[in-house]
Amino acid sequence: MPLNNVKSEENIAYMYEQENGDYVLGKEPDWSQINDYILNSDLSKCSNNAPLSWDKENNTIILKTEKLATCKIYLRKKFYGESCNDDSIACKISQKVEDNSVTNDNGLIFHDGTIDVNNDNNIDDAGDYSYRYSGSNPQNYICFGNGSENYNNGTDNSCPTENKYRIIGIIPTETKDNGTQMLVKVIKAEFATADELGIERVANVTYNSAGIVNRHIENEYTKLDSFDWSSDKKNNTWEDSPLYNALNDHFLNTTLGSGWNDKIEEVKWNAGGAKWYALATSKPSVAHTAEINGTGKDAQVNAKIGLMYAHDYAFASSKENWFKTLYCSKENDTTCYWGSGNKNNNWIFNHLCEWTISRYYDNKTDDAAYSAFGIYEKGYFGTASAVTTQFRFGVRPVFYLKSNVSLSGGQGTKEEPYKVAI
């Protein structure tokens, strides 16, 4: 019995959370075996308002009172970061989650649908129980791929620039063969080159970083190899894209290489896209719903490598931006993702045009219907022809690490990325 000073067994009600989120009355648990549940302190109450707390070490509830009490105890299912107990990167990173405070905009945020902010601006999280990095420059670097062996095994002190990736988060993800799992999702820190993808670029543009605010780049100049999303202006199907083929052939097997490609999970990418209003003129939580549970799911593709979703970009911004629409119709509009508040507080934003995996979902047959969504250099979101000459879009590969990939060291900083056990 973890509770003291109660009148009798009949004066304690134990409510257990179900898969659908409802609570059902049950009997007193076996406290030595209750590994999947934890006290829901927000719902649990005692008649004399005595404080209830959870003793993590002993898996029991503590009631501090000198008076008799009648209690209703709510036991919720443990979240991933509370229940995992292994050396996997997913487990270790999820346990670094920070308090859901809007003032703490530079860390790992738990998206449980109950973000703790003043909701005057209608700020919502993804509500999918994911853990996502947000803010200007969180410590989410990881070293990965062919050429990173010496850093990851401790022989070298630095990770090569081309091997630096950043962790988007730990995301519940539908895999091809192993059901839904909590997986570490990463994105290449810098844009992929034509050599890394093994295809010809559309153009190569040199940008002076002095004119680019808050770029996380190694050198004064950065070169962007740009690519078309499609090779056919009448086709915006992801499986037919030259990027899909390049990412899952040359990039996977040659650039990342043997031994590293085996650490990547084959997952179901939602490549169906969305209508304009569902992504561009919506806030991040609506974009997430469209891409994960809406039209995005209409065209699922089994693959190891893809590109980011629109909501990945949106939720990488600090939380005060999560009520804003992704598209802007005028410059520096504070209600959308053009303003400096997003650009300077979004670690994914690289200040250059960049493709996402989401296509424009439309039943029309004109050229505009065969487009894809991307991020523009001003920070806002929009569409461009999948075969474009007006804008130059870069590519940053995205993938999910297998659930058994372990962490062996590192700090997550740009100078000392997390190390992958090899």
Could you characterize what this model shows?
The chain is an alpha+beta fold and 422 residues long. The protein is 13% helix and 25% strand. It has helices at 80-83, 89-94, 149-152, 194-197, 242-256, 276-279, 284-292, 310-315, 340-343; strands spanning 12-17, 23-26, 37-39, 45-46, 52-55, 60-63, 71-77, 108-111, 130-133, 141-143, 164-174, 180-188, 203-208, 221-226, 267-270, 300-303, 305-306, 354-359, 371-375, 381-385, 398-400, 407-409, 419-420. Strands 8, 9, 10, 11, 12, 17 and 21 form a seven-stranded antiparallel β-sheet that branches. Strands 1, 2, 3, 4 and 7 form a five-stranded mixed β-sheet that branches. The longest helix has 15 residues, at 242-256. Mean pLDDT is 85; it is low at 99-105 and 208-221.
Please provide a brief summary of the model.
The protein is an alpha+beta fold and 422 residues long. The chain is built from 9 helices and 23 strands. The strands form 7 sheets. Strands 8, 9, 10, 11, 12, 17 and 21 form a 7-stranded antiparallel beta sheet that branches. Strands 1, 2, 3, 4 and 7 form a 5-stranded mixed beta sheet that branches.
